[in-house]
Write a structure and sequence with these properties.
Number of domains: 1
Radius of gyration: 17 Å
CATH class: Alpha Beta
Number of strands: 8
Structural class: alpha/beta
Helix content: 40-55%
Bound molecules: uridine-5'-diphosphate
Strand content: 15-25%
CATH architecture: 3-Layer(aba) Sandwich
Distance between the termini: 23 Å
Length: 243
């Protein structure tokens, strides 16, 4: 990680140890104001496990300016190794705060990813919630990562923020591959956040989140994701094993 910020290392991935508020005020907002490029990864246990299995992907995650702890599993692992993290920072909340800031500052955002109708619905919602936000452009997420026509289109729109909702590992791979085409921009992989913004997927109720059971809520709603939950257990097992 390039920036001077306290981190906690979990399975070779250095997570920032700060609050969402401080991350925004002391790091992300100043970078947006000065047009400095920056790469944000919101990492959950599945991403850490993928990095463990794929060295190229690990290098991409390690090249990020900020790796955010997004998921109760990461918080529990940090507690277990006795290096507690200050706060879980949900990627969705960070995205909404960035959009709020962009609206106030007159910055622009490109929305890349999700199914076409969800992508359009998410942009409509963003326009509704943040009427003064500049939409640099939008495109669905079903294309090849190597597609340079789409990447050039995004770069030519000169966005201040690029939200990439292709799911992991694609979103981080796309950012790593194409960010040099841009002269500025905060790049962030946002997973299923457009589905939530579009109102197609519901986040877990607050009580579930507070009990660190967001993963169980998701599993009950989307049972086909069970393989991912197995990865979360494998992650916890490896953290315990390593200690
Ligand atoms: N997606 C996409 N292109 C792809 C694969 C997935 O745009 O090639 C989208 C998918 O439609 C969804 C998001 O990426 O909107 C991934 O959502 P998921 O809930 O799996 O995200 P994660 O759990 O990885 O954060």
């Amino acid at each position: 990680m390039k920036n001077s910020i306290e981190t906690v290392k979990i399975m070779d991935i250095s997570f920032i140890n700060t609050t969402k508020k401080d991350l925004l005020h002391y790091h992300l907002f100043p970078k947006l104001n000065t047009g400095q490029q920056c790469f944000v990864v919101t990492a959950n246990p599945e991403i850490v496990m993928k990095a463990r299995e794929d060295d190229t992907y690990k290098q991409i995650i390690q090249s990020a300016d900020y790796v955010i702890p997004d998921g109760s599993g990461i918080i529990m692992a940090a507690n277990y190794i006795k290096q507690p993290l200050q706060e879980k920072i949900p990627g969705y909340d960070l995205m909404i705060d960035l959009l709020k800031f962009a609206e106030i500052q007159g910055l622009s955002c490109y929305f890349l990813g999700a199914k076409e109708y969800i992508n359009e619905k998410a942009v409509l919602q963003a326009e509704k919630q943040f009427p003064n936000l500049k939409i640099a452009g939008y495109h669905h997420g079903f294309f090849e990562i190597d597609d340079s026509v789409i990447a050039d289109e995004v770069a030519n729109s000169n966005p201040d923020i690029v939200l990439v909702a292709l799911g992991f590992p694609k979103q981080e791979q796309w950012i790593a591959k194409h960010k040099d085409k841009f002269s500025k921009g905060l790049f962030m992989g946002v997973g299923g956040s457009f589905d939530v913004l579009a109102g197609e997927v519901k986040r877990a109720p607050k009580q579930w989140i507070n009990l660190n059971l967001e993963w169980l809520y998701r599993l009950l709603k989307q049972p086909f994701r069970y393989k991912r939950i197995i990865k979360v257990f494998e992650f916890m097992f490896r953290v315990i094993l390593k200690k």
